[in-house]
Write a structure and sequence with these properties.
Elements (H helix, E strand, L loop, with lengths): L24 E2 H7 L5 H9 L3 E3 L2 E2 L6 E2 L5 E3 L2 E3 L7 E6 L16 H5 L5 H4 L4 E2 L8 E7 L2 H8 L7 E7 L5 H9 L12 E6 L2 E6 L6 H8 L4 E9 L2 E2 L8 E3 L2 H7 L22
Helix pairs in contact: 1-2
The structure holds uracil (URA).
Uracil (URA) binds next to helix 7.
Length: 279
């Protein structure tokens, strides 16, 4: 029998030069995170030779930016620690809830971004979770990916309150399984807080957010949802925001109503306003 060729010995693992250190961002992303300009514009500015790192003009947008480096755009310093900013947006029905800004056609970004004033348009925005295309209500956006993780992780136990209009007739007996932690095909759901507002309106508060979770839970007890609206995330409510409208949350709201203390508050570290903010 022919012998199997011997495998070459495994090369030793490459040393991780960033171990124990903060990983550098790449240049265009660092500018976008800092709110100096959106990433696409940053790439163009870098190519045009308008950006320097520690006094050297750098024309490659993937160049690493060491944590203590001094970044300048058109000779003006950019403060690299961006404040945490959060927008409350009232999602209308019929628009897709994409988490990536790149896929913009028919998505919430297409509705939100054109409304943003210059000082907000220069940040890279992330949607905080998703809502189904036909679901309306509160969708948060932030420039801080740690806040996305905080709000969407089931570990955080941040409540999300939905109101469903249901076919069929809701009563206490019907909704009881939702309060007990019912089985779903992707594992048991946590016990939900449920209130029957009237026979066609059920309020469901969850601390997790699985695909179509509210609709699946209601469907399983014979109350298929005709419409779904998210009223609140944490203690932030959609309030009287008009459909398609947004507002910037205050630092206190982010801290006290989303229970997030991860990054610098907006008032403590606003970006050095580079005059190039023309997004
Ligand atoms: N649960 C759903 O079923 N749909 C949503 O959009 C959000 C939660």
């Amino acid at each position: 029998m022919p012998r199997k060729p011997e495998r070459p010995p495994k090369s030793p693992p490459r040393p991780n030069r960033w171990e124990g250190k903060e990983k550098p961002d790449w240049l265009s992303r660092a500018l976008a995170r800092a709110g100096a300009m959106p990433q696409k514009e940053a790439e163009a500015a870098i190519k045009a030779g308008r950006v320097s790192i520690n006094g050297h003009v750098v024309k490659t947008h993937l160049s690493p930016v060491p944590p203590d480096a001094v970044l300048k755009v058109d000779g003006l310093p950019v403060r690299k620690v961006a404040p945490t900013l959060v927008l409350a947006f009232h999602k209308p029905a019929g628009v897709l809830s994409s988490t990536a800004r790149q896929h913009r056609t028919g998505t919430v970004f297409e509705v939100l971004l054109p409304q943003l004033p210059t000082e907000l348009a220069s940040y890279t925005w992330h949607a905080v979770g998703r809502l189904d295309v036909d679901t309306t209500g509160l969708l948060l956006f932030t420039n801080d990916d740690k806040l996305v993780a905080h709000c969407t992780s089931p570990e955080t136990l941040l409540p999300k309150r939905y109101v469903a209009t249901v076919f069929s007739t809701a009563d206490e007996e019907r909704v009881a399984p939702l309060r007990e932690g019912m089985p779903l095909d992707d594992g048991p759901a946590r016990p939900a807080v449920v209130r029957v507002r009237d026979e066609h309106t059920v309020e469901v508060t969850l601390t997790e957010g699985r695909h179509h979770q509210v609709k699946r839970m209601l469907g399983a007890v014979g109350l298929p949802a005709r419409a779904l609206h998210r009223e609140a995330v944490g203690e932030i409510t959609v309030g009287d925001l008009p459909e398609g409208g947004f507002r910037l949350l205050t630092d206190a709201e982010v801290r006290e109503k989303l229970h997030y203390t991860g990054r610098a508050p907006a008032t403590a570290a606003s970006p050095t306003a580079p005059e190039t903010e023309d997004a």
